[in-house]
Fold these 3 entries.
Entry 1:
Amino acid sequence: MTLPAVQPLPEVLDALRERGLRRGVTPLPGEMVVPAVPTGHAALDEALATGGWPRGALAVLDAAPGHGATSLALDSAAASQAAGGLVAWIDLAGTFDPALAARRGVQLEWLLLVRPADGAEALELAAWLARSRLLDLLVLDLDGPSVPRFERLAALLPRSDATALLIGPSALRQAAGRVAGIRLRLERRAWLAVGGDLVGLRTSASVTRHRWALTGGHTELDLYFGEGRRIDPLIPALAIPERRSDEHLELPAEQPALVVLSA
Amino acid sequence: MRVLMLVWPTLRAMDVPTQWEGLLDRLDDLSPRIEALEEGVALVDVTGLEPIHGSERRVAARAVALAGMYPVRVGIGDNRWLASLAVRLARPGEIGNGAEARAACLILPAGEGRATLAPMPIGLLPTDQAVRDRFSLFGLTTMGQLAGLPRSAVAAQFGEAGERLQALARGEDPRPLVPRRRPERLATSARFEPPAEGVTEITLALRRAATALTDRLGGRHLAPGRAVLSLEREAASPLSVHLALPEPSTDPDWITRLLLARLEAQVRGSAGGEDEARITGLTLTLDRLTNPAARQLPAFEPQAGRWEELRWSVERIGARFGEGRLWRVVVDRPTAALPERQARLVEIGHEAGTHP
């Protein structure tokens, strides 16, 4: 029995690229690469291995409430705008807080806020906006009992150069997860405090699905509430011994430095 | 110069811009030099119209006849000020014998402005009560008394405003009449033989019409700010779609898409049965012609250009999904103590003067 000739891997990859089955991020010679949408955190950009949210991806932020999904989405929106992009925030629950967004660096004058009637309409509006090919980032902040179908939006996004970030309840995330290009699991590890004030949270970010690079990327993000972003580079972080979840959280009143309290 | 002023008192109270444009268009038959002061007030240069229309009374009667069914007041004088004063003092029955006689009219004799004004009370001058009180302190009760004072003395007591009022009291008003530029409209029509079955069947014809008109405008570096599509329908009332474009544009694709989106929304909302009517013809009209919007802002704000383009998509979404969907945040009280009061949400398409 003769074994088939083994083709060297680079040649296989080249052949795949020529056939349009490219799954990596290496551009073809002469190809103009549209930079990824920045996440607002260099460590996460690196963990994703694509320099940010890949264009055309539906990215699901797997996080329970209070674990930093909305904060990360706001940071991504701010970073995208800082790079000259336009952002739409699809706010189904009507909970978008302009003051908080502005404090996290979002330029409100270049933010399109969409208030759909239900989940299905939210996805339809997202598809209409994506088709304009003018938006860089669509944040889908969904809520409610109905679970719309994400297949059409996921199929449309690669042709639009836009990235959609989904935050929402577990059922919606599961429904979107089947067609998502990226799933990022966020888990709060610690609270961040200055003196007696909570200023943010430390969350671990794990890439559990990635259509354009290897999965398994991991990093820790410090997500600050509003003004806390300005405190970060100035004050050294201090770790506080781990506590049980039911233990009363006591913040050190006299501590002037940034402290990290376990969650 | 002889100036005729027309005032439609009831039209000023009503919000009917379309009819106002129509009235101004009709007045073009009287004179080519017409100034629209505000809605319901027009100035017409009637200098040298006697050979065409006859005496100034006939000119005034002709203006009243052209002024439509609304009550109108007419005044003729040597300048804007005298014409407006004539309108204020006008009484019915001065002109014509028929319907025109009901219009209030006054014609001040040419070249006799100062003499005509001399016995009139000084209170007719356009000024505030404080200045009138000062006039009465000086014992000035008629315009003739103010007109007779040395100009330097009036300037010393009342300043620049006093000089201006004295000039008016002498029947002088240097402000010229600024004729309006007649709004230009371009229209084209298409007939369907046999009639088109529905809205989708007229897409090609509509795009062809839009291309024909925008090509003509593009050559003159003009772009329409509004598009009006009128459909003639078989056994149904005509249908009109008025579309104010997000910005002046010569892109026939976008004009066609937005018109169709509006049309589909209108047909969906119409009474049952009418949406089935076959279309026998269409007329596309483009107006509010201006130079296309300048595109220099994106050089400084990278998002500005794309936001302007996005407004076209937003317009389509508005037509498709209805109102209340698309909003933007306006930070109008950045120093408010409570964060929730610093900004407010404004629905896109309903904001006034809030665009950055």
Entry 2:
Amino acid sequence: MRIDEKLAIDAFKTDKESHIKINHEICRSKCKVKYCLFICPGHLYSYNEETDEVVVEFAGCLECGTCKVACIEGAIDWTYPKGEFGVQYRFG
Amino acid sequence: MKKIDVVIVGGGLSGLSCAYKLAEKDMQVIVLERGDFPGSKNVTGGRLYLMPIKELIGDMFDDAPFERKVVRERWSLFGEGNSINIDFASEKLRVEDHSYTVLRANFDRWFSEKLMEKGVFVIPKYRVDDLLWEENRIVGIKAGEEEIYANVVVASDGVLSFMAEKAGLRTKMKPKNYAVGIKEVIELPKEKINDRFNVDNGNGCAHLFVGDVTKGLFGGGFLYTNRETISLGIVAGIKALMGKTPSIETHALMDAFKERYEIKRLIEGGGLVEYSAHIIPEGGYDGISKLYGNGIIVTGDAAGFALNMGVTVRGMEFAIASGIIAAETVIKAKEAGDYSGKKLSYYENRLKETFVLKDMKSCRKMPEFLDNEDFFTYYPKYFPDFLEKVMWFGKEPKERVGKTLWGTLKTSGMLSFRRLKDLYKIRNI
């Protein structure tokens, strides 16, 4: 089962606005490894070569906080989604 | 400006336990929960040990929706293509109320409903954005344009605690102090679970895995049986994942774990009903935040109360105990009419008298001890390999067991100074 298929099983309520903001300047100038690309359990981060930007599909965010901790350069500004939004676990 | 007694940020186990005990003393308390209902943002392995909190909780969990009572403890060492398993069963585990598996969406929701029956306001879909200050005192919270004033704010907002951070009680989160857990909830009929795990109705199994599960990284796997589901997952240190070259995709570790022969049989025919993830405090005693300030107390995961002892992992009972002791502290503060940090320091002093800080302190050296890749690579390789040599009958005449053992001890370096030092260090943990 692919990771996007796993995420499709979960219940999400998606806000229009992302709760994850990425400072691309920091990614470009300071971050060599880009831990976010492999460390996210939802595999939501990808790199767009054309724009030289890290992109996150925030709608599938499991709100685990791994990227916040692993982004040691501080490019990821991560807050909780607003009340009413984000993942809603039915088992937990 | 109306001021209530307590505002609790986060409707998890510590926040709800705190509210429960405050309500018993008729304190005005509001619990703010950002999810659709308490439990909807929570992830646990998980199991709850009841013995340490028995006296503190009283009858609080008498009708709680536990999943299964753990009567079998299993532990596996995974090599690349083999494994050693220990299956511990005990009359004591069956008779006593030792530990139970739980699913938090169900458990916390039940708990919050119980609170609402007691007249506590548990407000869902409510994200707290900031703290309110008066000089150097915290006097409430802010959510959007709304402000709620309270004598004490209890920060029960989980491992990522933005409240502890805003209160200046916690420093920047370091990768070495956290692990990431991924969990899949897999549905299986009750009878199938009973048969596969050799348990009867209502009883279940807790199983921890170490070794090839995390490809040699700090961490391991877990499996807990619930009523009609299985919670299966992995935990890996964030620092360890970051240091791995070539890098491993975290979610791929979970897939590889499920592909193992030992696991595949157990979950065969089961359907995935939820995929979840969360970070876990792994810093131990030295990873604990400052626990209180003027007008604020930090509880549960927010404070870093979780303990990985290698063969067992604990967290929820620490959360519950800290929530209850936070309530005791606020009650004392109200009696004195003093909500200063000095008065609230009672919280830390009381925690020191209980298992919360006692156990965390006595296991202080555990994170350092476990930060040794030999536990995740070397031992999981050589122990199963030795057994494989003993069990295997090939074309060649069979070697004496003693010779195989001695040969393995020598060639594996088990008798080297380094390994003996590991053994010697055990006395510290």
Entry 3:
Amino acid sequence: MILYPAIDLKDGQCVRVVRGDLATATVFNTSPADQARRWSAAGFSWLHVVDLNGSVAGRAINEGAVRAILAEASAPVQLGGGIRSLADAAAWFEAGVSRIILGTAAVEDPELVRTAARRWPEGIAVSVDVRGGKVAVDGWTRDTSLTGPDVARRFEDAGIAALIVTDIDRDGSQIGFDIEVFGAMADAVAIPVIAAGGLASVDDIHRLRTRAGTPIAGAVLGRALYAGAIDPRAALLAAAA
Amino acid sequence: MQTVALIDYGSGNLPSAHKALLVAAGDLARPPKISATADPELIAGADRIVLPGVGAFAACMAALASLPGLLEALDHAVRERGAPFLGICVGMQLMAERGLEFGESPGLAWVTGDVRRLAPPAPRFKVPHMGWNTLDGALDQALFTGLPAGTHMYFTHSFAFFATDLGDIAAWTTHGETFPAAVRRDNLAGVQFHPEKSQGAGGRVLANFLAWRP
């Protein structure tokens, strides 16, 4: 299982927020590039970078910070937040991003995902952000009537690299995660599922990895990693074991 | 002080390659000076040369050739003076005789073989080959000192350099089909993967290159 330390960007800084609410932001590093260097040096094989301002605005807001991360990280980067067109995606691939995450765009314009996945096989991930059982968009400011598996099934044969499933109700809360939110998605489609939101301990990583049913391909680590509740080395061991 | 010329011809991976080289150099007893440059004089006189590269073979070759005096300076440094050279990704592919992409384009022709599109035998092997993959075979000791076969590196490419002289192949990898992950002939080395995105193992390759005395 691949672990993705999250670097969430707000106003040029590396922050963690609770349940997607930007007003709750806690700054963990004023230099996102420094944070990227630390996580890649700690042994994580991928980084998960989100432009939080960008997700709400629908366009890149923290471009400078993302470029600094790309220069500094010694591991590939997947990037989400505000990427709404093929041109946006092309510019980021050109800048050195390894995988693009489409969220809102995937709900509003599924054809965009299909076209992008044909153009960049293995280069597109779709994020499905679930709150109270329904998918939320626009930086989680707006709910839709679709369930997670509804959205996931749309992309069953689109050739996307991963579905990143976020449990908004638990994201940043450290109250422990609900494995079945991710499990239901993994069992619904053949696309690799990356779990995000609420992982609180190394034991949670172990539970994801040893779950009965379709394996979970990866997990995004956020607040628990920054707060020290998850030790990077122990996490990597638990994911590899 | 030793100088390393990182050739700046507009390649997208230049900033990350530059940073990674600085980090690798920092671990050496006598760190060299690393300059991103397109200045033919600096390149002709450099102790070591690194050529990054992403995108299309023909476009990269054209970009190199469009810089005044650059190909001559490169040739002087690595062929006449024997300065150690490292090509990264398309920078490695340019060492080939030809690129077969849209028709045929000439390369630097330092190492025998052609660059062609990956053609894995089953659709589950996607092109581009994107992700972590292992270095296989007997690894070249100049580039891979301290790294065992099976070490993972990060790849992202649709084309590969099928060097035809087996003695030039410094490591293999397999993505549906088996192809060279690295080549080396004399003072000329190239890696298909991105050492600058391959964490500590990639850093080790860069450090090995900086310490290498062919």
